[in-house]
Amino acid sequence: MVIQQGRIGAAALAAAMLSLMPGTALAQAYQCAVPAASAPLSVPQVEQDGPTRLMPVAGYTLALSWSPEFCRTREDSARNARQCSGQDGRFGFIVHGLWPNGRGESWPQWCPTSRQPGPAALRQNLCMTPDTRLLAHEWAKHGSCMVGTPETYFSVTRVLWNSLRFPDFDRLSRREGLTAGAIREAFADANPHWEAEHVGLKVNERGWLEEMRLCYDRRFRPARCTPRRYGPEDGAAVRIWRGL
Fold first, then answer.
1. Is residue 122 part of a domain?
2. Which one of 71, 132, 153, 208 counts the least CB within 10 Å of its CB?
């Protein structure tokens, strides 16, 4: 892949995107409601919360948050109303963000940019990431180190997201003795070209699934996760909250 000051080259990006087949990821949003184009949608201001790190991109992580667990204690939160109140839809996995990785366990972040996503770009992605503040934050912290515009960052993220197929996580959640390895195998079985070693998990201290972290190489092909991204060992017990 061509890297231009740490960002994706347009030709390499197009080739990578064409290699991905569409899947059924949008089924993760149930009856998602998007504000009408005539409705005002504010663009959140994002403050940098860490140091600027400039380095070559060695791969990527697509972080997918499991909404039932995230919303478990946030159903009445005004800050998370779009994702958790149920008024704008019910969600399974949503995209937390697409993150560039550096060598080893480091990563680029907060690369200099003057660009911000506009209301139209945010509105277009609210069924994938139902939080305008999170969308703006992920562009500023991570997308700015990948591509030149927020529109391109969200477009790349959507293509990856739409290429995925998901097993029945409701059925998985009812399995006796569920383990991290079983979740990885179920996802790999549903997605050609994926192996269990490409699927990282984030589990909270009580053993409940919080996120799935999918690992890619520089050409957006599934790749073996580093230990930090891989998370719990395959034999670790994991529970999945289905919601009420």
1. yes
2. 208
Task: Determine the Cα–Cα distance for residues 244 and 226; give it in Å rounded to an integer.
Answer: 34
In a domain, 145, yes or no: yes
**Helical (H) or strand (E) element with 60:** strand 59-66
- Torsion angle (degrees, nearest 10) of CA 64, 50, 203, 72: -70
Is 244 within a domain?
Answer: no
Reported pTM: 0.90
Q: Rg of the chain over CA atoms, in angstroms?
A: 17
For residue range 155-200, what is the model confidence (pLDDT) as tens digits? 999 999 999 999 999 999 999 999 999 999 999 999 999 999 999 9
Residue 239 resides in a domain: no
Q: Which residues pair with 64 in a beta bridge?
A: 95, 212
Cβ contacts of residue 231 below 8 Å, gap of 6+? 180, 200, 201, 202, 203, 213
